[in-house]
Amino acid sequence: MTSADLAARSISADLAVHYVRAGWLTRLARGVYCRPNDVLQLHPCLLLLERTIDGLHVGGKSSLDWYGVRHYVSQQPVLQLYGWTAAKLPDWFTERFPAEYHRKRLFDEIPGALLHVGPFEKRVGAARVSAPERGFLEVLSEVGVRQPLKEARELAESGYGLRADVLRELLQRCTSVKTVRLCLQLGGELSLPWAKKLDPSHLPTGSARAWVSRSSDGLLVLKP
């Protein structure tokens, strides 16, 4: 609960302080409270963060994992969160839920209407999460930065059932030439069924020049 939530229940800031001192509320951080002895649950905590960080959603490898698209199961997965603005996840959250936050604007969209992002499995009270197709592209966008190409390829192999129509819509609105080219390249190399349904001539693949980047994986060359 936030101070605003308490105020909506006619609990003023002074009264909230009294409740904390009396042990009826626990203060997690400035303006954030919970009931004593409550075990915080991930989805309600994410819903609270969504109110303070524009475009916040579970994405990348975490969204793929939530939807069962994975190459292996990490022993201690770190939750991958994406948003539109520069932000720092609060300590009270990361102490309970190991997580990383990335500011990313990968698509031509607005934070209040993200493409193919919605409540997990359309459940009431669930946090917002990328559809598998968007999560896959979010992973590819990190290749050469903090995402090993080998793992991205392995996830592509696991993404056999990705929907071509959803990928097409996302790729058409994608602002990263590298991501578009890498998606098409991996899909073609692995002979994935969705790749055969994508027409590169209708996607933003950039100029006729090759896209080249050097990282710890070596030299990555992506042809148009």
Structural write-up:
34% of the residues lie in helices and 16% in strands. By secondary structure, it is an alpha+beta fold. It folds into two domains: 1-38, no CATH class; 39-222, no CATH class. The longest helix has 13 residues, at 177-189. It is elongated. The termini are far apart. The model has no long low-confidence stretch (mean pLDDT 89).
> What's the SSE pattern?
HHEEHEHEHEEEHHHHEE
The first-to-last residue Cα distance is: 50 Å
- Helix content, binned percent: 25-40%
Beta strands, count: 9
What number is the mean pLDDT?
89
Strand order within the widest beta sheet: 3-4-5
Low-confidence stretches: none
Count of separate DSSP helical elements: 9
The main pleated sheet reads as:
3 strands, mixed
Beta fraction: 15-25%
Task: Kindly give the count of domains.
Answer: 2
Classification by helices and strands: alpha+beta
Approximate shape:
elongated
Radius of gyration: 20 Å
Keywords for this entry:
224 residues, alpha+beta, three-stranded mixed sheet, two-stranded antiparallel ribbon, 9 helices
Structure at a glance:
The protein has helices at residues 3-8, 13-21, 42-50, 60-66, 91-94, 132-141, 149-158, 164-172, 177-189, and strands at 26-29, 32-34, 57-58, 79-83, 99-103, 117-119, 128-130, 211-215, 218-222.
Which helices and strands, and how do they pair?
Blueprint: H1 3-8, H2 13-21, E1 26-29, E2 32-34, H3 42-50, E3 57-58, H4 60-66, E4 79-83, H5 91-94, E5 99-103, E6 117-119, E7 128-130, H6 132-141, H7 149-158, H8 164-172, H9 177-189, E8 211-215, E9 218-222
Parallel strand pairs: 4-5
Antiparallel strand pairs: 1-2, 3-4, 6-7, 8-9
